[in-house]
Amino acid sequence: MNRDAPTVLAPPSVPPAGASLPAPSHAESDDGPPSSQGGLKVVTISPATHSIPDIEGDRPLPRRDDPYIGCTIDGRYKVEDVIGEGGMGVVYRCTHKIIGKKVAMKVLRADLARDKELMERFLNEAKSASAIGNPHIIDISDFGELPDGSTYFVMEYLNGVPLSTQVEGGTPLPIPRLLHVARQLAEGLSAAHHAEIVHRDLKPDNIYLVSRSHEKDFVKILDFGIAKVSTSAEGRLTRAGAVFGTPHYMSPEQAAGTPIDHRGDVYSFGVILYELASGKVPFDADNFMGILTQHMYKAPIPIRALVPQPEDVPPGLEAIVLKCLSKRPEHRYQTMDEIISDIEKLQQGLIPDAVPEMMARSGGFNVPADYFKKGGMPAPMPATPGNPRRPRTAWPLYAGAAGVAVAVGAVVAIFVSSASSTATPQPEPGPAAVATETATDTTSPKAHAPSVLPKEDFAIMRQVALGVEPLDARVYRGGQDLGMSPVVLEVEEGKIVDIEIRRDGYKSRTIKLDGTSPKASVKLERVPTPARWTRARPEKLPGHAPAQKPKPKPNLGGGEIVNPWE
Asked: How many Å apart are CA 34 and CA 76, to the nearest integer?
């Protein structure tokens, strides 16, 4: 957060140290209980007690830009410093004067707090968030109204770092750490969704990693309900966030301005996992509308096509992310509990349910040939072997010598049988003899010779994102309909595949893809509209005027039918 940015609040000016702060007309004295207005208690602000030193004689030190710093709010919360600033207000670090506990206080902008309906909806969201009761949701302990009409609430103070700092510079998170963070995040969102609360502004800046007891990377989710109750958007591409959310993490339905539900959080969850696994957001552009358009129409580039070591990203994780990023809400996970189940399977080395589902969809999601044999993730290898090393014995040497002897005997027998067969010519066998020889050949020494299993080939697959203009053109591969553009195809390295694009009214086109480029685009040509038939006029010969036909007399009602072409 930029602390040098202009303050977005309009708090009352603080009088000089030692002067008394006039109490608002609707607030009662400190001796009695605080008054309430609209369901909120109106608190008092005590001015700072520190003095302002002078610099260079008569020139005073400029007072801090934020007049709340150094003040005590409601006789309990002493404001110490600004720790964050955004479009909705400012977050301060405070100390509870009675119990000495550090807390965080967020003060909403006065212009937003004047909207009584907005303030009431915000406080209802704050009450709901505090009632979730999940350790991964930040706890809100108090809220009230300041004399100038600004609304505030008090929450727990987090000594940690935002998740956004862990992916700065485009460095992906290690997969075990990513899954540890993802599971906690899913558990917190699941608890919120069961309480019928949708975050609507989920992003790495709103997720904190703190140390709790002996557990590192403990997840805390902030700012529940802020975006949901806002009434105006500012279209800001800053880390402070826009009122209706940050465009890089918006769901397609949120980008289109249509109503959203908890499945919008599922999409944002997928965007965060995509960024943690690849170091990049799936969609980016240099303007607001460019990002929103990609959310609605563009398919994300597969994660394994972005990272330097594709084998480090489990296909099961990519399947989970791609299912979360489905454009239509009904194609995503319907609950966060389903995501938790798939993450658990991936952590246990099993295959998530999203893998076969994503393979069944058109779009080219594939897995390595041995994926279903070895499972989703390799089992961790122990640092030391489980069994102590045993002393070597002589029996492997004897077994090896015996094997060599058997092999030599087999070779000698083959040469003897081949010599006898060449010494005595045999007539050309008929079909019956061939069948007999084939049946009895299994008893020859060749049948008992050790066979060498063919080495399994592991094809390297390259993924190509194909975009077509017009967007409703259909893509075909080997006669199989892969759906409308855009689609993601998998091409085996070293091979070329033919892709056909069709649409009514356009010329069909076939292109060849070899996987060397991760992107491809095709523009179809319109079929020219046939010209309308017109009657040719006779040519005029020079010097000859065409004979003039007598004009027929007009008939009024009845009579012959007149040819309009003559």
From this structure: 13
Going from the C-alpha of 11 to that of each of 8, 69, 120, 161, 483, the distances in angstroms are 9, 11, 20, 29, 57
Whether residue 104 contacts residue 124, with contact meaning beta carbons closer than 8 Å, is answered with no
Which among 287, 279, 283 has a CA at the least distance from the CA of 267? 283
Beta strands in 167-240 (DSSP E): 207-212, 215-221
CA pseudo-torsion sign 102, 108, 109, 110? negative
**Residues involved in catalysis:** 201
Strand locations in 147-291 (E): 151-156, 160-162, 207-212, 215-221
Nearest alpha carbon to residue 202 among 108, 136, 110, 257: 136
* pTM, two decimal places: 0.57
- Residues contacting residue 518 through CB under 8 Å, at least 6 positions apart: 301, 305, 462, 463, 464, 465
Which structure tokens are listed for 132? 């979730």
Give CA–CA dist 74/71, Å, rounded: 10
Q: How many other CB atoms are there within 10 angstroms of residue 404's CB atom?
A: 10
CA atoms within 13 A on the CB side of 122: 27
Spatial strand order in the sheet of 461-469: 487-492, 461-469, 519-523
Q: What percent of the chain has pLDDT over 90?
A: 33
Between CA 263 and CA 328 the distance in angstroms is 10
Identify which of 16-30, 150-164, 230-244, 329-343 has the greatest average pLDDT. Answer: 329-343
What does the alpha-carbon distance between residue 487 and residue 252 come to, in Å, rounded to a whole number? 17
Place of tokens 């937003």: 112
DSSP helix/strand/coil, 128: helix
